[in-house]
Write a structure and sequence with these properties.
Elements (H helix, E strand, L loop, with lengths): L1 E10 L2 E11 L4 E5 L6 H9 L6 E5 L4 E4 L11 H6 L7 H10 L15 H14 L4 E5 L7 H18 L2 E5 L3 H7 L2 E4 L8 E2 L5
Parallel strand pairs: 3-7, 3-8, 5-6, 6-7
Antiparallel strand pairs: 1-2, 1-4, 8-9
Helix pairs in contact: 3-4, 4-5
Bound molecules: adenosine-5'-diphosphate and magnesium ion.
Adenosine-5'-diphosphate binds next to helix 1.
InterPro entries: AAA+_ATPase, ABC_transporter-like_ATP-bd, ABC_transporter-like_CS, ABC_transporter_ATP-bind, P-loop_NTPase
Pfam families: ABC_tran
GO molecular function, one term: ATP hydrolysis activity
Amino acid sequence: MISVDVRSKSYGDVPVLQDIQFDVEQGQTVAILGPSGIGKSTLLRLIAGIDPKFEGTVSRPKNMAIVFQEPTLLLWRSVFDNIQLIHPELSESAVREALSEVGLADKADLFPGQLSLGQQRRLSLARGFAGNPDLLIMDEPFVSLDEKTADEMLTLTERLISKTQPATIFVTHDTTEAARLATQILTLDGQPATLKIKETLK
Ligand code: ADP
Ligand code: MG
């Protein structure tokens, strides 16, 4: 289980987050919604442990994967290596299986720069899921994709989540996306925030 208790987070003298408390169980998906600049990415960094400078506590499992808004791929390594270097414990066939799950089976020897943006996003997703994470964190994973590609990514993500059953926390500004993937919604609006069940969104 993931337990988030953020009392306060500031950048210098500027307060960003206050009183945010929630728990996430395995298999649950929390969508964090809110306007630009409200602190969604900041909250994800606190949850992931990337930024330890805040008041409060977060307990998280060790096996965690993060999928960023822009694919953070190793451009000078092959598609295959982009998964295997992050997951050295995986066999060659497990890496190929992870690529095949996202429709990139025949791209293993290419470099990321030779993939379309949608394919790069799929590679990021494959890399995230390849280690069977207990916690999956995604920051606007479907932005700046055309509608069809975004829809394919959503379907793929739904499938990988239901297969892997991590606790998932993801940021979006799209209520349709949130309604489709999330079991719970956390809305940031500058006030203390707690989880609401998904039905309140619709
Ligand atoms: P969101 O993801 O909701 O758009 P962010 O978490 O990126 O919001 O940012 C929240 C606020 O904190 C913004 O005002 C942003 O400018 C500020 N901020 C984000 N990162 C930093 C940083 N490293 N240093 C100072 N201010 C920051
Ligand atoms: Mg952000």
